[in-house]
Design brief:
The chain is of the alpha+beta class. The protein has 2 domains: 4-69, Arc Repressor Mutant, subunit A (Orthogonal Bundle), CATH 1.10.10; 78-258, GAF domain (Beta-Lactamase, 2-Layer Sandwich). Helix content is 48%, strand content 21%. The protein is built from 11 helices and 9 strands. The strands form 2 sheets. It has a 6-stranded antiparallel β-sheet with strand order 6-5-4-9-8-7, sandwiched between helices. A 3-stranded antiparallel β-sheet has the order 1-3-2. Strand 8 (197-206) and strand 9 (209-218) form a beta hairpin.
Amino acid sequence: MLVKQAENVLSILEFFAERQSPATVAELVAHFGWPRSSAFNIVATLAERGYLYEPRARGAYYPTPRWLSLAQAITMAEPVPDALIRVMDRLVEETGETVWIAGASGLHVVVLDVRESPQLIRYAAQVGTRLPIHVTGTGQALLSRMSAAEREGLLRRVRYRAYTANSPTDAATVLAQIDEARARGWFMSASAYSSDLGGVSLPVEVGGRVYAVTVAGPEGRVLPKMPAIGAMIAAAIAEECDGRGDAAGKVNRTARAGR
């Protein structure tokens, strides 16, 4: 359930990130369709706390650097490990597709860092994007590193729905797909959550925390190359993260066998 006031504050931040220039309360009202009093109260509160200021004396507001200071402090406390940054940089160059690092958060996975494909037609992932943990290769890679009891308990809490015709719609199917991925050596998604999107994922443990490394792009471009992409992810993990990925050697053997 969303808390409306909190959602509105986040919407204002996203508005300024896209607009890249100051805005008046009237412009916020026109953009969001909020009552003027509600918009004014949010802006006044943020300004009073030092999160908005008036760069020009005309009632137009813009976020202050305080947001950046907070974000940097939070990120410094638990940054994406340097080894995974190197993995992303390497894989976006090797595969030409979008690469991201994700972590588990309850019934979802959260994208923690992204390197976008340089290609014109690509998957545009964003930091902070949340995806259902049971549907995608990213989520199933993370599920695979949980204990059986934790994994099955989590899957009992999922509200299953068909996002596409390829979505798993019960726990038994998810568990079967995880077993298949383990035997294959890499996790995959083919239009399971987003139509025409294909992805390959592997889990990796760094600093006592489990992450998923995912390479994704248009399904028609990614699907034929999934074994090779799986091998690239495994090699990158093995070389940059001391081989702490799941079944890295198996992925390499599988890819070589398919050549």
